[in-house]
């Protein structure tokens, strides 16, 4: 009987969270798109090799989101949250104009 009660409670909590937030609590954060207004404002590119060097002359080949101080994941992570883009994940191989090397 305990198993059924525990299952019921876990499902009820999940359903309540879904009703409150409008999304499943176990869902992964959304991926930042280059078309997002915040991404456009900072010149975000999902692939740093596509950065327009004439527009961003300070860009360097070794700059990637994964080695930026704002990247919330580990350097080896394919994507992670960024302190600048709120609840959206950035591509570890990406880049934006706010890049600051990790120290």
UniProtKB/TrEMBL annotation:
Primary role: Specific class of high-redox-potential 4Fe-4S ferredoxins. Functions in anaerobic electron transport in most purple and in some other photosynthetic bacteria and in at least one genus (Paracoccus) of halophilic, denitrifying bacteria.
Positions of the High potential iron-sulfur proteins family profile domain: 26-103
Entry protein name: High-potential iron-sulfur protein
Summary of subunit composition and partner proteins: Homodimer.
Annotated source species: Paraburkholderia dipogonis
SUPFAM superfamilies for this protein: HIPIP (high potential iron protein) (SSF57652)
Stored PROSITE patterns: HIPIP (PS51373), TAT (PS51318)
Entry similarity comment: Belongs to the high-potential iron-sulfur protein (HiPIP) family.
Keyword Electron transport: yes
Signal peptide: 1-27
Superkingdom per UniProt: Bacteria
Record keywords, A-Z: 4Fe-4S, Electron transport, Iron, Iron-sulfur, Metal-binding, Signal, Transport
């Amino acid at each position: 009987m305990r198993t059924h009660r525990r299952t019921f409670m876990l499902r009820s909590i999940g359903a309540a969270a879904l009703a409150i937030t409008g999304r499943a609590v176990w869902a992964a954060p959304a991926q930042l798109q280059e078309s997002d207004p915040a991404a456009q404002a900072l010149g975000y590119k999902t692939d740093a090799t596509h950065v327009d060097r004439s527009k961003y002359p300070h860009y360097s080949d070794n700059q990637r989101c994964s080695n930026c101080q704002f990247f919330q994941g580990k350097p080896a992570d394919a994507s992670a949250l960024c302190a600048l883009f709120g609840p959206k994940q950035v591509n570890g191989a990406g880049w934006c104009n706010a890049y600051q090397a990790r120290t």
